[in-house]
Amino acid sequence: MEQFDLNYIKRLIEEEFSWGPSDEWTNFHFKELKIAIEERTGDSLSEETLKRIFGKRKVDTKNYRPQAFSKLALIKFANSLQQTSAPGKVRKPQNRWRKILILSIIPVLFVGGMFVIIKSREVSDFTFTCQNPSELAPYTATFSYDVSEIKDSVFANFGYWGEYYLPPEKKTINFFYRMPGVFNVKLYTRSKVLNTSRIIAYSSDWQGGYYPNRADSLYEPFINQSFYRHDGFFYADPDPLFSEEGVNLRDRYYTAYRYFSPFKKSLDSLSLETTIENNASTGSMLCYDAGLQLIGESGIIDFNFTQSRCSRFAGIRVSEKYLSGEDTDLKSLAVDMSAWLNVKIVNENKVFNLYLDDQLIFEQPYEKPLGNLIGIVIYFSGSGRIDDLKVFDKDLELFYGCDFGRDDSN
Fold first, then answer.
1. Which sequence spans correspond to the domains of the chain?
2. Is the pTM of this model over 0.85?
3. Rounded to the nearest 10 degrees, how much is the dihedral formed by the CA atoms of 65, 69, 71, 77?
């Protein structure tokens, strides 16, 4: 869509997230929507702005018009929803109608010697499964399905690259996963979500890449997977980024290094140590940050440091808990990154602890377990450096280590 249509955008978001009518949303829903918009577009709309737009704050509804920036962000978000589902979100279909199924004989109504048996049900007869949901990338995932009993057209989104129509007369569709990652698959009609599942494409080694602004869903691996591998650290120099990879250095961009593997160790009981650096002189940008993601089978740890005095742009997610520098004091994450920083994570007893140079700077308890570790991502605004990474299990036994040397392989 190109023109701003607030009612259409509202309906699109309500259907995508399956949260029910927006006038029934709580603070939780607006916080999640804010996160999804920022992940998909790189633009940040406050929860208060979203509440005003969706009519949860008292405004002159007849004359209220969102600001130009808010309109553009919502148009971009709506366009992304039309192509693919929001990253990292597993949603349940919305039960708009109560299922009624009367299997036994009910009171018989005699009308002129005839009777009527009342029977009503919602058709939900379909199957959709992946034969190989986790393999080493690149690989082709094979999906088996049967949607012949569904009257509406059925589509699938496999985590990126838009939607695919599923012909009801066919039973199989294959999708090629060209790069490592965790991909959320969605089966849906134009009116509701039918099924969600997940694909894990593992990697045999670290992979470097980049994406524009904060839209990590648009991540693209580097064509050349060797230029950033220096002697003992990873660093994507801006010069080859421009000359070899075609990255527009005038726009805000992120570099990222990713590794996905079935570590078979609990993310709820481990510790990690690493060393990072990101500064204006080598990073090519005046405003910069550095972050780390630990991806589990059922949850994620994701946080980012910002430069000094920029804690407004810091954020941290631990399982179901999310804190933003917009409405939370995260000054402890605003640090001087011009020299190497020693970062340490200790996660135990459902309490996340973050250390910087052996000093505890942040602590966050959580409730929902994260599951086994399946992925590690280090990302930088601009071009940062990563040197040495070690991960220990609950018994402090090293189960993964990397010194990021030129010839390192895993």
1. 6-83, 95-202, 207-402
2. no
3. -150
